Amino acid sequence: MAAADGAEEPGMEAEELAPGCGGGDGSAAAARSPQDPETVSNGGEEEGEKEQVELKVIWNKNKYDVKFCLDGTGAELKQKIHSLTGLPPAMQKVMFKGLLPEEKTLREIKVTNGAKIMVVGSTINDVLAVNTPKEAAQQEVKAEENKKEPLCRQKQHRKVLDKGKPDDVMPSVKGVQERLPTVPLSGMYNKSGGKVRLTFKLEQDQLWIGTKERTEKLPMGSIKNVVSEPIEGHEDYHMMAFQLGPTEASYYWVYWVPTQYVDAIKDTVLGKWQYF
């Protein structure tokens, strides 16, 4: 692995993908100069001229300078990250303005030079150790939900829902799943009936819950579970709870979450590997 020019930050490493972005190690190509006759062949220059973008990949306090093909897909970038970090692609949560779509190219999602790519992930043993209590908590929540009446009919929630839909809540799109917006989700209510906004700070792997009085900055790894339920009569909005401790008493409730962002919120907070 070649060292980056100049002084490096602790943990900073430099990596370069082969110009073809086809998944090779690129060692032979990197050893040749542009003037080397071996690199010149009829019809062979098109691949070498593919446009590249310089990225800063950040994982577990380590930083990597990476050159990657702008027309490479998210899935291909995950393979590159695997070669850097040892994290299998299925265990990676890769974020650039939300979860990185595997099927789209970096050009399509408008990645530019110097972009920061945040990677969250653990070894399989770490994930299994964490998943066991989280899966148990999810099963307990589902069992309790089956015993109870719908959440939106319960007294503690009705007093908030009876206030009606906030005038400044973000628009909803039923039947569609969207990535998280680049701006905070705002205009919603908390359990006290006060306005609340959710800001997803992906580079810090934090969820910021902001009210008029203060902003709570929560590491996403500290959130044990996320539950949600459509609001009766307004199924294009959900009520959602973030479990901050071991019991239901630790739920932080948010009301009038647009339905198109529900899955993206769960994926971002819990990570996709929670579902298999």
How would you sum up this structure, described in words?
The protein is an alpha+beta fold. Helices cover 22% and strands 28% of the residues. The protein contains six helices and twelve strands. It has a seven-stranded antiparallel β-sheet. It has a five-stranded mixed β-sheet with strand order 1-3-2-5-4, covered by helices on one side. The chain is elongated and about 65 Å long. The protein starts with 11 loop residues before the first strand and ends in a 6-residue tail after the last helix.
Q: What is the terminal separation in angstroms?
A: 34 Å
Radius of gyration, in angstroms, nearest whole number:
23 Å
In round numbers, the mean pLDDT is 79
Summarize the biggest pleated sheet: 7 strands, antiparallel
Low-pLDDT segments: 1-10, 16-20, 22-48
Q: Any idea what the shape is? A: elongated
Q: Strand order within the widest sheet?
A: 9-8-7-6-12-11-10
Helix content: 10-25%
**Could you say which structural class the secondary elements and strand pairing correspond to?**
alpha+beta
Portion in beta strands = 25-35%
Number of strands: 12
User: Number of DSSP helices?
Assistant: 6
**Element pattern in H and E:** EHHEEHEEHHEEEEEEEH
Q: Main attributes?
A:
276 residues, alpha+beta, seven-stranded antiparallel beta sheet, five-stranded mixed beta sheet, 6 helices, 22% helix, disordered N terminus
